[in-house]
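Sharing a chain and its predicted structure for anyone who wants a worked example. Both blocks are below, sequence first, tokens second.
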Amino acid sequence: MNRVYNFSAGPSMLPLEVLESAKADLLAYGDTGMSVMEMSHRSAAFEPIIANAEASFRKLMNIPDNYKVLFLQGGASTQFAAVPLNLMKTGKADYILSGQFSTKAYKEAQKYGDVAAAASSKEENFSRVPSVTRDTFRADADYVHMCFNNTIYGTKFGYIPDTGDIPLVADMSSCIISEPVDVSKFGVIYAGAQKNMAPAGLTVVIVREDLLGNARPETPAMLDYKLMADNDSMYNTPPCWPIYVAGLVFDWILSIGGLEEMKRRNEKKAALLYDYLDSQDYYVAPVAKDSRSMMNVTFITGVEELDKKFPKEAEKAGLMNLKGHRSVGGMRASIYNAMPYEGVEALVTFMKDFAEKNPK
């Protein structure tokens, strides 16, 4: 196999061990004589697949019993509407704006009630996450929404905001299962699977049970958390193949030592890249040190022509998808769970070589 190092922000790399397992089951799963992609979601063969995926996920994230796990569709962006439709009681919600996706969620929620931007780092070009305290939020807000890791800008909250009795909702699409997190601190956690969990097509929602059953009358059935929970995520046909792969990913992480080991590996990879960035002046890392993401590392040369040349030359070296998001420019290395340490080593080696061959 001639596999490359894929630094895409998503869909992203999957663990090789998981791909090999999926490959072995691709044509026929067990003794069923059919692929998971072909079997009925209500069949006796699929029932243990989704049940085991949920059980492994619960064990991996240490999810309390009073939380439901939903395997849904529509991407994390669909949750921008689902959250206010399910959680707004008084019609008020507060949002922390730390990047593009939290801003999109904020704008979507404004369709449904009195939605305030409680804090924002927009004026700093989202180069750091906002600092908030309990007093930042309105006492009568139904929930507070945040995006825990900002894929485009390469920032991450180094703390869990204190919202008191107000439910905290977190979009964790680009950092879920990268390190331990105290689920009990949140009312809702949601995440698109295509960065750390599975192929695109699956969205996972973790919701505290007391927040179920409050959906507005106009809420579409497919966005009603309680309806989905009551039907064990099978109100309609779920994304069967991504759920199967997600289960393999959860089991793989458990087999290597769980989220503590995953965090150790991710910190080691991120430190290698950030330490190099901090040791020289050819590349600039624009993110404040106290807000740096372990998953998405952004950097620039400061010369537009070189920033355009870098990802093209990197591809020739087998380092793919290093071009920064169009709204930010520069470069972005997404080093999710499945990116091996050797991939980051190869990137740093290339960065040094590129700097030598392309003086400013």
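Comments welcome. The longest helix spans residues 258-278.
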